[in-house]
Amino acid sequence: MTDLRKLLTVGPGPVDLAELDPAGTPGLPDDHAIKEHPKRWSRERVAAIGKDLAAYQERLYASAKNDAQAKRVLLVLQAMDCGGKDGAVRALTAGMNPAGLSVVSFGVPTEEERSHDFLWRIRRSLPAAGYLGVFNRSHYEDVLIVRVHDLVPPQEWQGRYDKINSFERELADSGFTILKVMLHISYAEQGNRLADRLADRDKHWKFNPADLDERAYWEQYQAAYADALSRCSTDAAPWYVVPADRKWYRDWAVATLLAETLAAMELSYPPGDFDPQEQRARLAATVDAGSAAAAR
Question: Which of 93, 109, 168, 185 ranks highest by number of CB atoms within 10 Å?
Answer without folding.
Answer: 185
